Amino acid sequence: MRFGITFFPTVGPEHKSAADYYDEAVALAVLADELGYQHVKTVEHYFFAYGGYSPDPVPLLTAIARSTSRIRVATGAVIPAFNHPVQLAARLAVLDNLSRGRLDVGFGRAFLPDEFAAFEVPLDESRARFEEGVRAVELLWSQQDVQWDGTFHRFGPVTLLPRPFQQPHPPVFVAAATSPASAEAAGRAGRGLQGVPAISGRQGFQDILAAYRKGWVDGGRQAGQEQIQISFALFLHEDGEEARRLGRYDEETYSERIAEATRAWGKARSADYPGYERLEEAGKLLHFDRRLKENQILAGDPQEVTAQLEEIVDWYGDDVTLSFTVHSGNLPAEVSERTLRLFAERVAPAFSERGQR
Question: Where is the Luciferase-like domain (predicted)?
Answer without folding.
Answer: 1-317
